[in-house]
Amino acid sequence: MSRVYDIVGKVGDEQAFRQEIRDWLAEKIPAGWRARWQGVREEELKAEIVAWLEERRKVGLATPHWPREWGGPGLPFAYQIMVYEEFARADAPELDMYTISLFHTPATLFEHGTQEQKDKYLSGITQGTDIWCQGFSEPGAGSDLAALRTSARREGDHYVVNGQKIWSSSSMHARYCLLLARTDPNGKRKHDGISYFIMDMHSPGVEVRPIPQITGESEFAEIFLDDVKIPVANLIGAEGNGWNIAQSTLSTERGLLIFGAVERLAHSFGLDGREAKDTWMRDVQHRREYAALYAELQSIRLMIRQLLIELEANPDKASPTLPTYIKLTWGPFLQRYTEFLLRAEGLEALKWQPSIPGTGHSSRLRMNDFLKSYGWTIAGGSNEIMRNIVSERILGMPRG
Amino acid sequence: MSRVYDIVGKVGDEQAFRQEIRDWLAEKIPAGWRARWQGVREEELKAEIVAWLEERRKVGLATPHWPREWGGPGLPFAYQIMVYEEFARADAPELDMYTISLFHTPATLFEHGTQEQKDKYLSGITQGTDIWCQGFSEPGAGSDLAALRTSARREGDHYVVNGQKIWSSSSMHARYCLLLARTDPNGKRKHDGISYFIMDMHSPGVEVRPIPQITGESEFAEIFLDDVKIPVANLIGAEGNGWNIAQSTLSTERGLLIFGAVERLAHSFGLDGREAKDTWMRDVQHRREYAALYAELQSIRLMIRQLLIELEANPDKASPTLPTYIKLTWGPFLQRYTEFLLRAEGLEALKWQPSIPGTGHSSRLRMNDFLKSYGWTIAGGSNEIMRNIVSERILGMPRG
Amino acid sequence: MSDDLDLGVLAGSFAEMLDAEWPREKAVAYARADHLYAEDLWQQMAALGWTALTVPEEYGGLGMGSAAVAALHGALGAAAAPVPMLGTTLAVELLLRAGNAAQQAAWLPGLADGSLRAAVAQPGDTVVAADGDAVSGSVANLLDAASANILFLRAVRGGKPAWIVLRSDAPGLSVERHALTDTTRTLGTVTLDGVALDGDALIVPADAAALDDALLRIAALAIAADAIGGGERVLAGTIEYMTVRQQFDRVIGSFQALKHRVADHQTALVAARGLVEYAAGLAADHPQALLMAISAKQHAARAVAEIARDCIQLHGGVGFTAEFFPHIYLKRAKVNEAIHGTRPVLLDRIADMLEAA
Amino acid sequence: MSDDLDLGVLAGSFAEMLDAEWPREKAVAYARADHLYAEDLWQQMAALGWTALTVPEEYGGLGMGSAAVAALHGALGAAAAPVPMLGTTLAVELLLRAGNAAQQAAWLPGLADGSLRAAVAQPGDTVVAADGDAVSGSVANLLDAASANILFLRAVRGGKPAWIVLRSDAPGLSVERHALTDTTRTLGTVTLDGVALDGDALIVPADAAALDDALLRIAALAIAADAIGGGERVLAGTIEYMTVRQQFDRVIGSFQALKHRVADHQTALVAARGLVEYAAGLAADHPQALLMAISAKQHAARAVAEIARDCIQLHGGVGFTAEFFPHIYLKRAKVNEAIHGTRPVLLDRIADMLEAA
I need a labelling partner for B385 at 20 to 30 A (CA). Which of A81, A372, B174, D344 fits? Predict the structure, then answer.
């Protein structure tokens, strides 16, 4: 018979809180979930994920970082951090498919959504029924996001949208889309005249084409929009204010999301070294490379903790500098570390293995993890964009 | 009693030629020259160098790469290469102070000088009495050489020169200077209107200020030119054609000069590994680093040999690509190798030692050699300029 | 001089056929489906005599040496051709060095005409005990075992190193295929269950270490050349993309930070190619033949893996898709690093050789 | 919270004094002449109580911990200050951990007021046999030995590790100075010819390995902080130069290829600083205190050496002259890499600790 857990009730006593989560995780994490998810069919996977979300919902942790008013546990920030730490430490199932739903959508709606929008959309997320996707990037507007061309023309009580989106994660599974489109083609700067919509992916004229990726999976897709009608009620914020709101959406990638990703790696990093104790950890050079990477990993974890402290003190996320430094350190580090493992482990690490859908770069499927590291060096502002930001915006060096 | 050597007479029999040089070098290389030159006073050093040049002159090798008509031995190209190989292998005294004299000046005069100029200036080089320097770079025109501002105004039978030169190696010891100055300030492109002169460094108005460098030496200087008169007879080539002639001057750095430098390093590289057999060569990581650097060094030597073959087939030095690749490989390699030695050898390698004037980067004074490697990554077209050339001129990528 | 010319012509003919028969679109499509090897391409190669390159003339081959091996494998690397040519190259070397006349006569003609596709064990692969008339055991991760119809396995007989040569269809022999992330090659686990050793099956080299070195040299040259070919192709394709892809109203190939990375890659490839070609041109008995070959292998394989890694980054988002070509080269580059001596293993050997010099 | 504030104020006051008293021009000029150490600066530091930072209050000090050590050494690194502060920092640690009351009373006040300048042996320095009443022997390459007036040497007595503390002017003791390329520090070879061991001269730690670890931790923190301070300063000065130096009619700081290198350096420094500060903030008995300290040291020292190396390149020709400042930081960075555990030595230790965890 299962114990009754009161995790949220332990707030105020860190040790008890952590112990309660650990006990709960120890009992509830679906045994062998990684192996089972590997190569599973889509429907079964979704059922697994919904079941896990339901398990989390029972203890109030479906959405650990949400405020109480929107169905979250209303945890103090420090306790949100602990939750993600413990999830990483226990290797709880990953929910990459719900990333937009759990992070980007609430970050956008909490701040900019109408009451009606919040009421209508948030519960579908906590229950795991609605997957959201993001419609920001376009084939001609990747690093240069503001160059987007998808148009939204107002016609009475709706907008008519035409264009094409790309790199939209999980959009083949998505019910809703956070969409950026140009409502005013005559804006002075290219950032002007962009508006922000909630788009129902079941609308006529929406077509999704999964993009095969170099890991063999298709986690993201292109979205073709052909005279898609979006009700005016689905506009988020004011018309033409989409660029600013999009910054809120994207800022969510700076906090707990990257924290969780890095903590996952810190967990697998430890396992990697221990499991190699009779193989590459016996080679002086590899030992040293591993030990050197340890320092780098710690430096990233510390920067993120610093950022979390700053975010707690100032939830408006004022400073763009630390997130930029973190991204420009983390992505390349992750790529080097996963590449190091390929070299250290040799041919065995290069064997093809089915990927584990809906999980990140710490699956310990070596080649997959290496290839997925590009997700951090290219997506969400490539290394190159980050270097522009550091040199020009942070250090004030002149534009070329 | 000293044997009589006939090195040049052995041309046609490679093995005999090499053996004759080896025998001669074994007898004639001043014992312990490196230790003696270290920290020696300037006058003594010059005497040592002149004596060594005289020794070389006796067997026709003062200027191994010169044609017979100008006092050289007229060696076939393959034999010139052998000479430099054998000099490097035997660690014969280096003559960096005479680099411009032995390479740049003849490369310029052979091709572009008048008969009178050749007659007047070349013998002073073979006898070691005249050191030459180069007056190309200016404080505001380093990588962007064509932006030079030093002016030469024609007044009757002479030019009046005003301006400032920098990075002029050995100019404090120099009798003559290969000088670039602008005779026409209204050229369409900045390469136009530049003329090429032989300047007597004893002329009134020439002032030389040695530049202290990070090795503690001052191998080069600034030259201040205040109404310096240069006879019209000292113009090389046509007025305004200086930029093209300068390319001949600089092209000399592409062939035997860099070959000699690399062969010197190949020699010291071997010694470094052998002498470390009980120290860092016992460390797996350092062993591997050394072994990896070996491949890189060989790849550079092979590129240079390829270049020498091309130069022999086509003395007009048509292709700029291979020299660019060589420079962009060699400079960074040398810097990494000398830096590797610092790390491998630890604190001992960081002790200050007097430098060995007039020698290059293979003195085996660890920190000196490391610091001097910048001579290849900054001077004569920095790494950055080389990367521009490779991407834009060779690969045809668009300008920024 | 005529040798050089021939090599240039040869390399040109390799490239011409592969450009026509194995263009980038085909390579991209191939990588997205499940295949064992590109059989059509193999047949074409065989028809053109490529599989006969190093087989002596008396066995129907062209009798060429290691420089030609590098030219061929360089072209195959450039095309990322999914053919088990390395097996042929190594099997021919092995038979010429250690096979008896009967074995040479038995296998070389089939290798030459492409009807035999060989898988040859790497250094470090499992050694099979072969003391009786039949062998049992298992050899894991044998490169290209699944596409081969003849296997060359490391063995030991009477305490001495040996090789056994077995047909894939020999009774008691089975091969379980493992896909690699590099879809141009596969691995196989070979299981031997009382497989009979007939008269020709056993190769006992006079000097097993010398044979291993000879095989290592040829493998190193082939892989180094394959790496360079791939590196040049992935970089050239990336430069091409950079001259059309626009961001911030400019082609991305005009951004200096990207151009400088490309310049470094190009320079590294030119330098590495020189090393590989020099190593491939040395006679097998040249004192530096092995040193140069493994130096070239470790250097080229590493440099190209790094270049291919950056080519995806230089492509940006599309580089992460299986619809573009760079990933094919990255994955092949990673396998090139891992087979026939990882870099650490080769560097240790090189250091030993430098110390002994 | 007030600790943090104090540290910030402290660091600010260090920087303010050094900016005023040891500006770049002075550092450049100093590096071109022959000096033992910057005596005036030392006196000023002592007058401000910096030398008393970690000395307990009862001995005239401020009783601060490792976070303050990092703040001070970070400021000294930023200024490339030629003062033997590391010796004081280590001597205080050594005395507090292993000195008896008499020794503490004898030496700490002088260390606090700056009248004593200590040189403390590194791990691996020569161990002096100290079994009798007098010692003889030689210790090579003792850091800052020539500028010190009190020496802490590794010794062995009765087969057990110990330390001996000697005045530089002790009869029979002589120090031969060796200049380093980093002119902000020197080495000395200490020769002992029957130097008497008086009652206070011998320190026999209860746990010599633990003492070594404590000293290594403090040295690592001080050097890591010194490195970061230097790295930040050399990069900032380089960026400053890049915004004024023109080539091709543009300031060179507008070239993207250069900017991207600068961006990577800046990012590396921010990350490394966080690691150093965290390590310095851990209590000495924190289970990760040593692990983090040596991780920070090997990482910061290497990263900064590389950044300083590139700062000369980014300066172009003037970076190669002793008239500009970057070389000072490069040379200091190289010494920081080499002292109190080279990177390989520390990485081996870190790997051991990670395996034991």
Answer: B174
